[in-house]
Amino acid sequence: MKITGKLTKVLKKQTGVSKAGKEWQKQSFVLDTGADFNNEICIDCFGDKIELIQNLKEGADIEVKINLSSKEFKGRYYHNISAWEINLQDGVADQNVESDEMPF
Length: 104
What we know:
Largest sheet: 6 strands, antiparallel
């Protein structure tokens, strides 16, 4: 699934150790989709996917490919939104459309 919007905040990296003894790390960021209601979505990057947001600046327009998942715990469901690819939307394609010159 793809979602686009403006990167508004990158949260602190979190680390820990699972019950199985494996170290983990995650970093979340907030995306403003521009929707009229509930426009902010917090998305997680796990493990090596943290690198996807390291060079992005707040205010950047991005497209994020995500996985949605839910887990049940004691009769309640908890949802997770995980990024697996992030692309910067810089408008370069729009600039090429207006050009009269051939690109080759």
